[in-house]
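Archive entry: two folds, one per protein. Generate the first.
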Amino acid sequence: MYLLYAFLVLLSLSDSSSSNCPGRCSCDSLQSVQCYRLIEVPSRIPSTTKRLYISHSKIKHLQLTNFTQMLALEDFILLASGTESVENDTFKTLSTLKTLELWKNKLRRVPTALPASLEVLRLNDNSIHVLHGSDFEGLKKLKILELKNNLISSFSPSVLSSLVSLQRLMMDGNNMESVAGPLPLPHLEYMSLENNKLHLIPGSFFTSVQSLQFLSFSGNLLTKIPTNLPKSLLSLKMERNQLKVVRFRDMKHLENLSHLYLSENSLSSVDGAQLLANLTTLELSQNQLQMLPLRLPARLQKLDCSNNLIQKVTVEDFQDLRDLKHLFLDNNIVSLFEAGALQRCSQLSNLALEQNLLLSIPLRLPGTLARLDLKGNAIQDIAERELKDLKQLQVLNLRNNKISALDLKALEGLPRLRHLYLDGNPWNCTCSLLRAREVLKAKGTDVRGGQCAAPAERRGESWMSSKKIMRQCEHHLHLTEKSKEAKKKSKPEDHPSIRINMDDDYYDYEID
């Protein structure tokens, strides 16, 4: 990828629009300058430059003299250039600077005396250990602050007290074990503290954050969902923590919450989510659930309970979920699926039941299904009654089951079927199987098959592509037609050597 980028930059150098453009740089109407593989900031950057982008260079230090002529600079991006330090007041005189990005360098602290005009500050992937009270003084226009993947071990909200306009704060991938409150950011809308070492969030943390809409504490050591979350919250991410219990009564004031992510925790049961009346997405994968959540909100559209220990699905579990569109129950141990359990889910389009213990396709599934995944169960047959209502089904995955034959009538009842996956089943490669395949392909279904398990002489062959099997079936068809004609036109005594074997169902070998 880097080589491709280097080639494009070098190519652009040859078409540089100005002879004043520094070496290893390309200039666009003297407003934007892009440089690659430098050892210092170029001294001949045009004074009218508004955007300066430098990447993959070896610039160990930045200093004030690098920028004295750049009075119009609005955006400065320095990416992956090994920069270790920035001289004091280097950016102070850049009164038009709005964006400063110093990604993937080796900075140990936030540059000092940043200009008051700054709106975006990104210092991700550096080696910053500590945030000082003076780091953000005067930055009343700053809207975005990103400090991801540094070495920050503690965080005092007072450090950010000057950032009265901040809307987005990202401090993922640091070493923070604790935070204090309150957070003095009245206009904050998005905050992410993912992949730290936080084990407790004080109740006072959100007292002054009443505009927050998106919050993520994923990848920490939290044992409970923080209390006193702001009422404005729309999305809460708590994956990869150590939650054992969720107390929805402590969250019932979150009347706007629509997305809740609780995957990869230690939850053994979930009950009472109906208190979050506007919840549309609930993700609970990779927990220890032994049964489906009780009392779910009626507006739920997506429920992910994959990778748990759920054993059964009943009518009672889904009787009020009329808006449900996506249900993921894959990688559980479901062996009982009550007939009609999902019939009230009148908008369900995607049902995932891979890697369970089902012996048959569940009965009376919603006719709205567009995708049905049943890979890795113990299903032996495809019955017409199981699929007859699925007129909207486009994708059916039956890989890795125990199916040996196709019921052509069952599959003919799926007028919109576009993809049928049948690999990994013990196919009995009779000509009727090929006939079913040909009928499906004729109506535009992409059929992915597998290997024959029987009869013995065909074992290991692909029933999707074997010309030998096809020729053999064509031969059977030819013999069948000859036998029919002989029976009609000839008397038995005229041809005593011709005998129709009534033990074989010749109609099984007919191919359209």
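Generate the second and append.
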Amino acid sequence: MYIVNAFPHKLNMESRLVEFRDKMAADLDRTMEFWLKNSHDDKYGGFFTCLTRDGKVYDETKYCWLQGRQVWTYSRLYNDVKRFHKPEILDAARNGGEFLMKYVKNPETWKCYFSLTRDGKPLKIQRTIFSECFYLMALSELARATGDPKYKTEALKMMDKILYWVRVDDTELGRPKLAGMESVNKMAIPMVILCLIDQLVTMEPGLLDKYRSDMKWCISQVLSHVQRDGKVVLENVSFDGKELPGCAGRLMNPGHAIEAGWVLTTLANRLEDNTLKSIAIEKFIDTSFENGWDKKYGGIFYFLDADGLSPAQLEWNMKLWWPHNEALIAFLMAYKETKNSEYFQKFSKVFDYAYKHFVDDVHGEWFGYLDRRGEINMDFKGGDYKGCFHVARYLMMCEKMATELLGNE
């Protein structure tokens, strides 16, 4: 029985939900076949991520965000999706985890590299925490899959280091302190820490109390990005919650705000906080989608300016794969939580756009980069930022939610 704004044509909704679930299940199988077949480096370990449309390796550089994300994906599939609970999936996850621990982290500083040569030699390091975050996510999920305490121990030690850099002293990250630099609250930082906390609590539910104060701090930081009487979510604000001047202060990334919305919704359920859930769904998911949807050509803009000016980012009007993945997770989750049919209709709208423009039924996986009109701009399947993560995460989460909704109804 529906709680709010019941869908007027229940049979039509159920038939579409069956269609969505079946398409997503087939898409997940096809996507994972692509990565399992094409990305493994059997000589040096780890994964190739620079793959052409049909899976050929066009660059052997190993990008460490994507190494960690692929280990996480394999481990989560093994743990949570019955048909992927296979020895070859676990072996691939474990082999990737060992590559991470051997090559990605500098044992003296605990900084993780951004990229490596094929055989594991460092190429580049960033002055951020993101390589470290995906290292942690990978090993904590691998700990769930294997039961090996060394992965859990490593993940928890890395969490201590990340929290120290973010909340105590970031000088070890190597960023120069220049006279004109403003202190900026970038939404990506507290949001990714919320993802880490949720990941660690998934690994060990008892850790919720340990990280509760950090979670509340991060939530307050993320909520401060809702600005202009709730009409926009800005990427950058001051640490006292004020809008910053200039292009950076007006910057909106609708896909990122939508992702923050479903992360906040997940944590609101853990905390049994209905107020937080409402803000997450109404402001971060729904308002950001309404701001970000291209009403002329369809799809979600990559960047926007809160004043309606042209953003400084040259790629601002492109349509990227991952904001659509995040919107699909967010709207199906919003519908599941509220039974508000408007959210189901928006899920359907994004789904129909994505499966018309991004999905490759021939070779598997999704194209990542479209122009504003929805034409394929780059036809490779993986690169330095696109790997085995966003598509697979969306598919496993939404297939599960669709199955649960069909069961409930």
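Annotation attached to the second fold: The first strand starts at residue 50 and ends at 51. The radius of gyration is 21 Å.
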